[in-house]
Design brief:
The protein contains 2 helices and 73 strands. By secondary structure, it is mainly beta. The strands form 22 sheets. Strands 30, 31, 33, 34 and 35 form a 5-stranded antiparallel sheet that branches. Strands 57, 58, 60, 61 and 62 form a 5-stranded antiparallel sheet that branches. The N and C termini lie far apart (about 250 Å). About 5% of the residues have low confidence.
């Protein structure tokens, strides 16, 4: 039998021997770490005979136990952390009991941590505070403390189970996060620390920021870090450090801030833990107010004393000052106060100051600084200014800078008398005699000063007169000087006039004729003139004696002279004394009474001729040029001639000629009676190849520009023969003044050959004879026409 068989036999022996349970053997399945939530089986086995009964107990921390089941196995389907602990397995039979302990250590992630604050209750600044964090975890958790920021971020505070604040601050208030972690997981828990603390020093702000201008809306705001929240009270701190409650709000509002609101304000922040105050100074900016000026001296000020002028004004920021004297700005640097180390008369005046800053300006009251001093050198003026004209109103004014005011006296120099005791010397109508020097004396109790002024009165010419260097008669060729004088200011300029006509002399005074001429004879005067007036002198007649100059002869009326008109011949010669005149015609002296003119009441043709005159005085004589007087007249009664004279036979030629005395010469026209047509123009009229038909009454007309004259009809009576002779007057080349000629041509006549010439009627023939002649001529003409 081998060893293994022996052992088995022995074991069987033993098993069959009744025996109490041995110490149980306890196992955990699965082996290794047990994690919460897993399935875990605790098995208990004990060697016992009879076989043991098993009971599982969970042993409490106080030593008591609680039966879990009465099985050999204790199964946890979903083991919990609370299942951790000691378990005891009791194996028992009738022979006895044996127990075995086993510890179940369930591993699990941290549970939600428990956070505690120590001490509990309110937390005040400065106290010691501990934040403790604990979390049920297996294995034990590791801890990290975080402070959570307001933006959600966090900051690690430590990595311990406790967060200690040995002296907690208000800034430590906030949310804290405790994070518990092991290899199985992490859990966290938030807690809030509310540190109670008295108000911190308040923060005081002004809105709007920057300078505060009077009249604007201003808000003072107060804020203080406090827990619990602070309550606020505003005070205005008075100069005596007392204060006045303004309100009990966080803000102090000035809807319209005034300069009087400037000052210190205190904001008090308080809670049950304490009180804090903060001061703020409000400086309200405003323009100058209550500007005033004053002097270091009162009463009268004497020249040379020291005087200080001061200006004050309520303003923020402080005002800059400008000084004014008599409302005119002074060139002092802006200075306040201002000192006159030695006051002068010119410093006298009304002063005020002008305060100004960027918010406004205001002038002060006026202060009159009255400096007393003796008169200064007077200032003398003339009104109106400029030149002084006689007759104008002129005022001399004297003024002197003096205090007290000066009294004035006017003197005319070199007269030794005062004019007026007044500041003005008035000439209501100034005269040229008022010209001269005047002195003004200005005086007061402190002294006297004088000033001279010269008055130069301007006036127009006066007493203008003219005179000659020669008296009595002035002969041609002598030297003569004419002088003009006049009283005038400024000196007059002179103009000379001769016979009231301005001569061509340059303006000169006196004026000299080196060799006086006849044409210089005349009435002279001078005219004095300046800008203020003019005046003519008396007239001076300068009578230059001289022989006659070449006489001249004129006829009036001019132009053509017609017979019967009135004509005057005039002779003129420049002579002094006046000349005597003698007249000549065709160089023959006339018996006219000597005279300058001669008149023909009714001029005649025989007055025609060459005329001249002869002028003579005691200084000489001279003849004029010759003047031809041409008397114009109409034609006189024409004179008619016939050529040839004697008997005219039919077929022969006859020439009729007409002449008349006329000026200008006459023009001639031939007519046949009862026939308006012109037969011939010219002095001669020739009839050629004469026939009986050409017989009749013919006449000529003499005419010029002055008039016309017809010849009279010549009546011819003759005997006729069959030889047809024409009978003309016997006279050979006989001139017949009274024409036309009557030519009687007989076709049949008596046998006798004799003829009787008819006598030509004169101009004095009566009207009756002329009528008979016309009648006989008419009868003969009718017979002649009947016979034809």
């Amino acid at each position: 039998m081998n060893l293994r068989s022996a052992a088995r036999g022995f074991l069987a022996f033993l098993l069959s021997v009744p025996d109490a349970p041995k110490t149980p053997s306890v196992t955990v399945s699965p082996s290794g770490e047990i994690e919460e939530g897993s399935s875990v089986t605790l098995s208990c086995s004990s060697d016992a005979n009879p076989a043991a009964n098993y009971t599982w107990f969970k042993v409490n921390t106080d030593g008591s136990s609680r039966a879990m089941n009465q099985r050999q196995q204790l199964i946890f389907r979903n083991i919990l952390s609370s299942d951790s602990g000691q378990y005891r397995c009791d194996a028992r039979n009738e022979l006895g009991t044996k127990s075995k302990l086993i510890t179940i250590n369930v591993k699990y992630a941290p549970k939600t941590p428990s956070v505690t604050v120590s001490p509990s209750g309110e937390i005040e600044v400065g106290s010691s505070v501990t934040l403790s964090c604990s979390s049920d975890a297996n294995p034990a958790a590791n801890y990290t403390w975080f402070k959570v920021n307001t933006d959600g971020s966090s900051r690690v505070m430590n990595q311990e189970q406790q967060l200690d604040f040995s002296y907690i601050l208000s800034s430590d208030s906030g949310q804290y996060l405790c994070e518990a972690r092991n290899e199985l997981g992490t859990r966290s828990k938030m807690t809030t620390i509310n540190v109670k603390y008295a108000p911190k020093t308040p923060s005081v702000t002004v809105s709007p920021s920057g300078g505060i201008e009077e009249g604007s809306s201003v808000t003072l705001s107060c804020s203080s870090d406090a827990n619990p929240a602070a309550k606020y009270t505003w005070f205005k701190v008075n100069t005596g450090r007392s204060s006045r409650v303004m309100n009990q709000r966080q803000q102090l509002v000035f809807s319209y801030i005034l300069s009087s609101d400037s000052g210190q304000y205190c904001c008090e922040a308080r809670n049950e833990l304490g009180t804090k105050k903060e001061l703020i100074t409000i400086k309200v900016k405003y323009g100058p107010k209550h500007t005033s000026v004053y002097s270091s001296l009162s009463g009268e000020m004497e020249e040379g004393s020291s005087v200080t002028l001061s200006c004050s004004s309520d303003a923020n920021p402080a005002a800059n000052y400008t000084w004014f004297k008599n409302n005119q700005p002074l060139v002092w640097k802006p200075s306040q106060p201002y000192t006159f180390p030695s006051v002068r008369p010119e410093d006298r005046g009304t002063y005020h100051c002008h305060a100004q800053n960027k918010y406004g300006h205001l002038s002060s009251n006026s202060l009159f600084m009255d400096v007393e001093y003796a008169p200064k050198t007077p200032s003398v003026t003339v009104s109106p200014s400029g030149e002084i004209e006689e007759g104008s109103s002129v005022t001399l004014s004297c003024s002197s800078d003096a205090n007290p005011a000066a009294k004035y006296t006017w003197f005319k120099v070199n007269t030794g008398r005062s004019s007026r005791v007044m500041s003005q010397l008035v000439f209501s109508y100034i005269l040229s005699s008022n010209s001269g020097q005047y002195r003004c004396d200005a005086r007061n109790k402190l002294g006297t000063k004088s000033k001279l002024i010269t008055i130069n009165v301007k006036y127009g010419p006066k007493h203008t007169s003219v005179y000659s260097s020669l008296s009595g008669e002035i002969e041609e060729g002598s030297s003569v000087t004419l002088s003009c004088s006049s009283d005038a200011n400024p000196a007059a300029k002179y103009t000379w006039f001769k016979n009231n006509q301005t001569p061509v002399w340059k303006q000169s005074q006196p004026y000299t004729f080196p060799s006086v001429r006849p044409e210089d004879r005349g009435t002279y005067r001078c005219h004095a003139e300046n800008k203020y007036g003019h005046l003519s002198s008396n007239s001076l007649f300068m009578d230059v004696k001289y022989a006659p100059k070449t006489p001249s002869v004129t006829v009036s009326p001019s132009g053509e002279i017609e017979e019967g008109s009135s004509v005057t011949l005039s002779c003129s010669s420049d002579a002094n004394p006046a000349a005597n005149y003698t007249w000549f015609k065709n160089n023959q002296p006339l018996v006219w009474k000597p005279g300058q003119t001669y008149t023909f009441p009714s001029v005649r043709p025989e007055d025609r001729g060459m005329y001249h005159c002869h002028a003579e005085n005691k200084y000489g004589h001279l003849s004029s040029n010759s003047l031809f007087m041409d008397v114009k007249y109409a034609p006189k009664t024409p004179s008619v001639t016939v050529s040839p004279s004697g008997e005219i036979e039919e077929g022969s030629s006859v020439t009729l000629s007409c002449s008349s005395d006329a000026n200008p010469e006459a023009n001639y026209t031939w007519f046949k009676e009862h026939d308006d047509s012109v037969k011939e123009s010219g002095q001669n009229y020739t009839i050629t190849n004469i026939t009986f038909e050409l017989g009749g009454n013919y006449y000529c007309q003499a005419h010029n520009a002055i008039g016309l004259h017809n010849s009279t009809i010549l009546l011819i009576k003759g005997n006729c023969s069959f030889k047809r002779h024409f009978h003309l007057p016997h006279s050979h080349n006989h001139t017949v003044k009274h024409f036309p000629i009557y030519v009687a041509v007989c076709y049949q006549c008596m046998k006798t050959n004799d003829y009787v010439p008819v006598t030509i009627s004169s101009q004095t023939t009566t009207v009756a004879v002329r009528s008979i002649v016309v009648l006989l001529a008419t009868i003969l003409l009718l017979v002649f026409l009947w016979m034809r």
